[in-house]
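Request from the bench team (R.T.):
"We need a structural guess for the complex before ordering more S-adenosylmethionine. Sequence and SMILES attached. Just send the tokens back."

Command: build protein-S-adenosylmethionine structure.
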Amino acid sequence: MTAQTEHKNSLAEIVNILGTASEVLKGEEQASLLHGNAITVLQTLPENCIDCVITSPPYWKQREYEVDSTFSDKEIGNEDRPSEYVEHIRAVFYEIKRVLKPSGSLWLNIGDKYHNKNLMGMPWRVALALQDDGWILRNDIIWDQMKGTQSPKDRLRDVYEHIFHFVKSQKYYYDSDSIRIKPTKVPSLTGNGIMSATGVSGVKYRQQIASSTTLSEQEKSNALQALEETIGKLRNGELVDFRMTIRGAQRTYHGENGNISGRAKELEERGFFIMKSSAKGYIPSDIWRIVPEDKWRKDTHCAVFPEELLVNPIKATSPENGIILDPFVGTGSSIAAALHLGRKAIGIDISLKYLATAQQRIEEVLAHQNTLPLQF
Ligand SMILES: C[S@@+](CC[C@H](N)C(=O)[O-])C[C@H]1O[C@@H](n2cnc3c(N)ncnc32)[C@H](O)[C@@H]1O
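Reply to R.T.: structure attached below.
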């Protein structure tokens, strides 16, 4: 029996809450909650129909969910050995890969576990297995939860978890502009011209170029021209800030050896380089500082996604009206965030108790959809 078939159970066990999955896929309903074993429900979905999967499966030996008796043998996370857990997770993501569009993304949050004092490295065991199955890993995001409940005596507190961003093919949907962090300060006009967001006007650079003993006359002329072009972009709103490095005028931290970096090479060849901050903002980093969610958590077992965590994955990797899937949906955080952001969503869970919370939460979102936008 393969890992895929091992998890099969009767299709009759799947229960629809809100719309059906096919109504969501056809655009007739906004959300569907399906009660059943993730792998079984996934097998009922057509291939290449989902834009983005965001999920947090049960962690290995971390929690005991209140699982309905029909599914007590299907719960993931209670396996004796890490390798068995990895195989179960792998089987679910085999189906996920099938239902995901070629342009789709998978965001996988997974926690670690100490076993006999030994940190098991569960997130990476899973990530490497998924890579072996053909998934392409684009980012390992460190979710800094900023607070930890434990105070161990012989090691440090754990405050982060991993979120892996996987894709199915090299070319995938990614709207990086939608998640850029916009500058808080903008350039301002002064009596003498324009000043960047951090007060750079270019006057000092003009003087440094003019008095430089290390630039040739041609390099000075090129540097002045590049500086004026940059200031022009500041004036017309394309840039919010810039810094200029001129050969011999500023300390450089990367050395002036062309082998070290592109900037060092530019400095050597042209005599200057300009670092520009675009008004479009900058791309977020792979460390996210977000405090975990408590509002929808009715017991200590289910690690609930904060909605803030879901905003960038949804915006960057699914189009407006795209379809989000969470095969371990719990209290419905990913569905709520998807609806808030104008997407449709399908959630699966083995526990009716969690699905009841998810249903209540999603009905609230649907009822207030036009009056309660998600804002961070
Ligand atoms: C970490 S929780 C997910 C919490 C969710 N991200 C939220 O924001 O509420 C994992 C969920 O997986 C569900 N689960 C466990 N085994 C499952 C299986 N075989 N199929 C579907 N769901 C399962 C549990 O009932 C639990 O709700």
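Two things stood out. The first helix runs from residue 3 to 6. The radius of gyration is 26 Å.
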